[in-house]
Fold this sequence. Notes:
- The protein is mostly beta strands and 117 residues long.
- The protein is built from two helices and eight strands; from the N terminus they run H-E-E-E-H-E-E-E-E-E.
- The chain has helices at 2-10, 47-50, and strands at residues 19-26, 35-41, 45-46, 61-66, 72-78, 91-96, 100-101, 110-116.
- A hairpin with a 5-residue loop joins strand 4 (61-66) and strand 5 (72-78).
Amino acid sequence: RNWIWLLLLSSTPKTTKCELLETILCADKCQSGCKSYTTNIGTCYNGQDLFPNDPSWSSFDVWDEVMDDNDELHRLIFASKDGTCHGTPIDDFRIPLNVCVGPFGLPRPWGTLRQLQ
């Protein structure tokens, strides 16, 4: 039975503290048409649950963690759609923090992500 617990424990990313991430998405290279979002770091979330009907967010679950050097975000995308981040990630990205990056998808393809203390 111990192997079942190990499997369950290893299926979701871990972090030791919960912090916040501010994501500012913009229509034009971080200059105009911007909208701000705040999500948790180190906790599974579903963007459509947090921001219903906002086309900037997919229906897939997301897990964000800040890398040890604090200048990069590691974003894991899961096939689950219920805020559980169940299973193995289907995609992952490393996104620089505190700089304008993109393009992401429409309607706000450019953005700046920063860790809030």
